[in-house]
Amino acid sequence: MSIYDAIIIGTGPAGATVARHVAAAGLNTLLLEKDTLPRVKTCGGAVSKYALSNLDIEIPDSIIERECFGARIRYGSCSLESETCERLSVMVSRDRFDHHLTKIAVDAGAELMEDVRVISVQTDNDCAIVETTVGTFRSKVVIGADGVNSVCAKNVRGSFTQQETSFALEAEIPASNEQIDNYIFNKGEFYFGIIPNGYGWVFPKDEHFSVGIAGRGQGFSRPMDAYRDFIKMLGFDYVKPRGHFVPIGGLDRKTYSNRILLVGDAAGYVDAFLGEGIAYAIASGNFAAETVINAHQKDDFSETSLASYHKRCMDSFLPNLKYSYIFSKWFYRFPNLSSRILVNNEPLLNKFIHLATGRWGYLFFMKWIALRLPYYVIKDVIGRR
């Protein structure tokens, strides 16, 4: 049986990015997907400017449904908007977005197999062995881009615990573009104070809204009830949502072992506060591809050789994920105060929305807040008298 140079499990932004790069480098690449593309993917579909900068290819206008230049924050009866002339994100539907990235990987030379579910991944001295529902494949290295419930990750670390994940529900609510323009037009809308350790969102798309909630902890034990209440509050028609777990980023996790790398959600690379993972999926896919190409040049797929992948991620974005976790812990330790401060101070909100650009990260943002926090707290106390 022939041995592939690389097998990538999963066709999300992380997997498709790895496959595109390693196939373009001339490696014999197999890309496995458990569903038929294009497949439904539960996600708000906001692709930040930072994510687009990591992608290094243009997204066609046919994939972009909206461009966003700001945000609207709501807490209780209070609302605040911030807008900039800089495009902060684009709105996409993940079925079309992921399919587009996968087609580019196939055009680069990757072999795609759909409707193939991975049962197990094992390694020995000579190769990695991937057992699937259609047979067994061998490869010099395997990249696990198979999400929060990664089969591949079992060879690297333990499964995510309940405390290491959030749960999200999302649905696409039909609406005319005129209705969407009148409601929000070119901003993302975020609701705080309605979900324990989380938030609700309304994102404008083409002929529909993406409406969802995400939260974690014991107070979020009845997410379907919370979602129905959210839809009722918005006055939208109810559409049954899809649910999925999201890893909480910023925790110390191992993402590599002999002949195996983990990328994207499988690696836990997600913003702990906003739950945004596309940017880090693409970035980790880039670094995984570089690591695999270098490993082939050295013919060394050992854990020691693949450790350079972690260093690349650490140098690029892992500190920011750590600080996103710290910020999340701080914000939700005092959720009411934090939400009031955010919704009542436009300079703060304006600083916050620019996290999407990648121009600065959570550490800079928290230092900026720390200098002004006494003023914001005093202002809140006076305002509530």
What does this structure look like?
The protein is of the alpha/beta class and 385 residues long. Helices cover 38% and strands 24% of the residues. The protein has three domains: 3-59 and 92-160 and 249-320, FAD/NAD(P)-binding domain (3-Layer(bba) Sandwich), CATH 3.50.50; 66-90 and 162-246, D-Amino Acid Oxidase, subunit A, domain 2 (D-Amino Acid Oxidase, Chain A, domain 2, 2-Layer Sandwich); 334-384, no CATH class. The protein has helices at 13-24, 49-55, 94-107, 177-183, 223-234, 264-267, 278-298, 303-316, 318-333, 335-343, 346-353, 362-384, and strands at 3-4, 6-9, 29-32, 46-48, 66-68, 70-75, 78-83, 89-91, 111-113, 118-123, 128-132, 135-139, 142-144, 165-174, 187-192, 199-204, 208-215, 242-247, 256-257, 260-262. The strands form four sheets. Strands 7-6-15-16-17-14-18 form a seven-stranded mixed sheet, with helices on both faces. Strand 19 and strand 20 (260-262) form a beta hairpin. Helix 1 (13-24) packs parallel to helix 3 (94-107), helix 7 runs antiparallel to helix 8 and helix 9 crosses helix 10. The longest helix has 23 residues, at 362-384.
Based on Cα principal axes, name the global outline. globular
Low-confidence stretches: none
Radius of gyration: 21 Å
Distance between the termini: 76 Å
- Quaternary organisation: single chain
The biggest beta sheet reads:
7 strands, mixed
Strand order, sheet with most strands: 7-6-15-16-17-14-18
Instruction: Round the mean pLDDT to the nearest integer and report it.
Output: 96
The CATH architecture of the largest domain is 3-Layer(bba) Sandwich
How many distinct domains? 3
Strand elements, count: 20
By CATH reckoning, the class of the largest domain would read Alpha Beta
User: For this structure, what is the CATH homologous superfamily of the largest domain?
Assistant: FAD/NAD(P)-binding domain
Instruction: Find the structural class using helix and strand composition.
Output: alpha/beta
- How many helical elements? 12
Proportion of beta-strand residues? 15-25%
| Helical content band | 25-40%
CATH topology category name of the largest domain? FAD/NAD(P)-binding domain
